[in-house]
Design brief:
It is a single chain. By secondary structure, the protein is of the alpha/beta class. It folds into two domains: 146 residues, Medium-chain alcohol dehydrogenases, catalytic domain (Quinone Oxidoreductase, Chain A, domain 1, Alpha-Beta Complex); 141 residues, 3-Layer(aba) Sandwich (Rossmann fold). It is 26% helix and 27% strand. It contains ten helices and 15 strands. The strands form three sheets. Strands 3, 4, 5, 6, 7, 14 and 15 form a seven-stranded mixed beta sheet that branches. A six-stranded parallel beta sheet has the order 10-9-8-11-12-13. The chain has a two-stranded antiparallel ribbon with strand order 1-2. α3 crosses α4 and α3 packs across α9. The two termini are 21 Å apart. The N terminus is likely disordered. It comes from Adiantum capillus-veneris (Maidenhair fern). This is Enoyl reductase (ER) domain-containing protein. InterPro entries: ADH-like_N, Chloroplast_QOR, ER, GroES-like_sf, NAD(P)-bd_dom_sf. GO terms for molecular function: oxidoreductase activity. Pfam families: ADH_N (PF08240), ADH_zinc_N_2 (PF13602).
């Protein structure tokens, strides 16, 4: 039986089962380019430690950051070693509770962010930190709830905390959202409209109608001249940009910003971080701000409440069984998904 990062023990109190199926990444690199999944590897069921719960996974969503970790792009920081079980977003049922956990109990339906360092979503059971695990409202399906942690938190926090736009319906901000048909972008459009902002969104031509239906005021084909230049059809300058894609030079943003404005960079790299540093040194009022996710339980609860009330829709691009999780991985790497990619138990 293979062993992965962490200490595991055999567990007898869950229907007398002592093993579960999971997907292991053996070494770094992208699928179909040198890295292979071991299908249905049998692993000891982990035991929750202090501040943790054991969740029987019903569904898990795939995020680009998951396969970027696998590719080795975040070395030497993540992962700490191979092999490991990838993925961070899950929904399921609590089957065991570690010491010190008072907010959750066995039998609770929950959704959770597992953390990049730990991973573990592509398995039948996963250890989840109690501090980033919350109750799932019964009105929300598991395949929807598992999509909320990374994509939902990123959309909410980038708009509210980084761009400084309150979710109160009274904002007069002009907001640009690039890559609006991706997992984060679709949530960002809806949350921005809940704030009251005027939303300009870029996406591919095939998704323009969807983005309009979600509330965007202006939708631009990113392949058009207007889209390539990030110009608002109504000539508006932006107070903030939620930048969900990559490869757009600062000069393109700057030409469309108000004198005091922020571009929130959701996929920062060395080049963009250098631009951020230079602008800070020059005390520019047009800022490029790298985003870092904060797994706050209160924010997960807020997302759940918005979804429960029908104010936040989850768009599912595709569903894949755990036995074919590599198909979900490949779909995400292609970069053309509309909404979220889900792996089901």
């Amino acid at each position: 039986m293979l062993r992965i990062k962490g200490e595991f023990q055999q567990v007898q109190h869950w229907r007398n089962e002592v093993a579960h199926a999971g997907w292991l990444v053996e070494h770094e690199g992208l699928p179909f380019a040198g890295v292979y999944f071991d299908q249905h590897v049998q692993l000891p069921i982990p035991v929750p430690q202090r501040g943790e719960v054991l969740v029987k996974v019903e569904s898990a969503s795939v995020n680009p950051i998951d396969w970027k970790v696998q590719s080795g792009a975040l070395k030497p920081f993540l992962p700490s070693k191979f092999p490991y079980i990838p993925g961070t977003d899950i929904a399921g049922e609590v089957v065991a509770v570690g010491s010190g956990v008072t907010t959750l109990k066995k039998g609770d339906k929950v959704f959770s962010w597992l953390g990049l360092g730990a991973g573990g979503s592509l398995a039948e059971f996963a250890i989840a930190p109690a501090k980033s695990t919350v109750q799932k409202p019964q009105e929300i399906a598991s395949i929807e709830a598992c999509c909320l942690p990374v994509a939902g938190l990123t959309a909410l926090q980038s708009i509210r905390d980084y761009a400084g736009i309150k979710v109160d319906g009274n904002s007069q901000a002009n907001l640009l959202i690039t890559g609006a048909s991706g997992g984060v972008g679709l949530y960002a459009v809806q949350i921005a409209k809940l704030c009251g902002a005027h939303v300009t969104a870029t996406c591919g031509a095939r998704n323009m109608e969807l983005i309009k239906n979600l509330g965007a005021d202006e939708v631009v084909d990113y392949k058009s001249a207007e889209g390539a230049e990030l110009r608002s059809p109504s000539g508006r300058a932006y107070d903030a940009v939620i930048h969900c894609t990559s490869g757009i030079p600062w000069s393109t943003f700057s030409a469309n910003l108000k004198p005091v404005a922020k571009v929130i960079d959701l996929t920062p790299n060395i080049k963009s971080l250098a631009t951020t540093a230079l602008k800070k040194l020059a005390m520019c009022q047009q800022e490029l701000v790298p985003y870092v996710l904060s797994a706050k339980a209160e924010d997960l609860d807020l997302l759940a409440e918005l979804a429960r009330g029908g104010k936040l829709r989850t768009i599912i691009d595709s569903q894949h069984p755990l036995s074919r999780a590599e198909e979900a991985w490949a779909r995400s790497i292609e970069g053309h998904a509309t909404g979220k990619i889900v792996v089901t138990a």
